[in-house]
Amino acid sequence: MKIGLIGSGEVATTLGTGFLKHGHEVVLGTRDPAKLSDWVKANPKGRAASVAEAGKFGEVIVLAVKGTAAADALRAAGANALAGKVIIDATNPTTDAPPEHGVLKFFTTLDESLMEQLQKEFAGARFVKAFNSVGVACMVNPRFAGGKPTMFICGNDPAARGVVAKILDQFGWETADMGVAAAARAIEPLCMLWCIPGFLANDWVHAFKLLK
Ligand SMILES: NC(=O)c1ccc[n+]([C@@H]2O[C@H](COP(=O)([O-])OP(=O)(O)OC[C@H]3O[C@@H](n4cnc5c(N)ncnc54)[C@H](OP(=O)(O)O)[C@@H]3O)[C@@H](O)[C@H]2O)c1
Known about the structure:
Layout: E1 2-6, H1 10-21, E2 25-29, H2 37-42, E3 47-49, H3 51-57, E4 60-63, H4 70-77, H5 79-82, E5 86-89, H6 114-121, E6 126-129, E7 150-153, H7 158-170, E8 174-177, H8 184-187, H9 190-201
Parallel strand pairs: 1-2, 1-4, 2-3, 4-5, 5-6, 7-8
Helix pairs in contact: 3-4
Residues 7-12, 30-32, 64-67, 69, 72-73, 90-92, 94, 132, 135-136 line the site of NADP nicotinamide-adenine-dinucleotide phosphate.
């Protein structure tokens, strides 16, 4: 598939490399493509471009920017370019405030997630929350003694969730499909939980698993 990633940080570059590894075509979109020169050198099959180009290029879009910039970044891609496309939303609505006892602060409430806000504004796109509840070191084909980790996903379009579940399978995850976009109210805060051992004990290598 053609994957357009919006972002230039460690999530966009890690997932970009992961998509290339799994045989997809990859364009990373940023306001400043020059800052991705090291990534392009290390990933010669990938390309760095503007956000608008990445948005146009991708059959599937990955949104991997700072949560406070998510809507602006999508506006730069253009609602028309995104219409009908699956948007894998890896963002979290964290603020710049320092964590309290290891607990990050969000700018959203538990009654409306960031992804629901984005889905409302970009109504033609098909958002699926994924990859937000794990750190970059464990995003692509992670290996844990406890077995395959679980990625919790949600989004209003079942077919879009199916597309993302197939990608997660390639990336070495089992998928727990939590249904419509409102479930992001629960999935986004998993990021807070995931980060606590990191902030308290510098432990950044772990993932969630749903046992039945
Ligand atoms: N780091 C992790 O392990 C991790 C794990 C899971 C989820 N996440 C989430 O994934 C997202 C990306 O995280 P990250 O650590 O890779 O990067 P980040 O440092 O949170 O964000 C960097 C990206 O945000 C964009 N950005 C910042 N301010 C902007 C603005 N005013 N307008 C437009 N774009 C702006 C930058 O765009 P330009 O390239 O144009 O400068 C850059 O691509 C975040 O929402 C984060 O919460 C992170």
